[in-house]
Design brief:
The protein starts with a helix and ends with a helix. By secondary structure, it is mostly helical. The protein has 3 domains: about 1-30; about 40-80; about 80-144. It has helices at about 5-30, 35-70, 80-100, 105-110, 115-144. About 85% of the residues lie in helices and about 0% in strands. The relative contact order is 0.05. It has 5 helices and no strands. Helix 3 (about 80-100) packs antiparallel against helix 5 (about 115-144).
Length: about 140
């Protein structure tokens, strides 16, 4: 072959290689998530979340939910209710009435009268908050 033909063949081959690289590069750009290494990193992330993270977090969430449900809905703890406070309030009112009829200070009949009244007021506030939290848990449980 003559030199001119060799140069033309090299130019043709070079042009084919160049076009092949451009085609290859454009095809490589079509991957949905970059390179193999990028995809493998995301596969590893999915593996971690599905095989380790979720089971651990789900168990924690489930246990916490059961604890909250036990206290707020099954009354797993003997917590005071609004009815309990109302009963004590009625008893305190009777004590006060009896003390007034006798013409003595209520604290002479029941020394912790005022503290007990304050505890009822405080407890009723907490009982309201308890019911609000119960409703919040109910609402959030439905949204999950």
């Amino acid at each position: 072959m003559n030199t001119k033909q060799v140069v033309l063949n090299k130019l043709k081959n070079s042009r084919k290689d160049s076009l092949s690289k451009k085609v290859d590069l454009s095809i490589l750009d079509q991957f949905s998530y970059g390179t193999y290494q990028d995809m493998q990193q995301e596969v590893d992330n999915l593996n971690y979340f599905t095989q380790e993270w979720f089971p651990e977090k789900f168990d924690q969430w489930y246990d916490l939910g059961r604890d909250i449900y036990s206290i707020y809905f099954q009354r797993g703890e003997p917590l005071l209710t609004e009815a309990d406070f109302n009963t004590d309030e009625a008893v305190l009112d009777k004590i006060k009435e009896a003390a007034d009829e006798l013409g003595i200070e209520v604290t002479q009949v029941y020394p912790e009268y005022f503290e007990h009244k304050d505890a009822i007021t405080e407890g009723l506030g907490y009982a309201e908050e308890f019911e609000r939290q119960k409703q919040e848990f109910r609402d959030e449980s439905k949204s999950v």
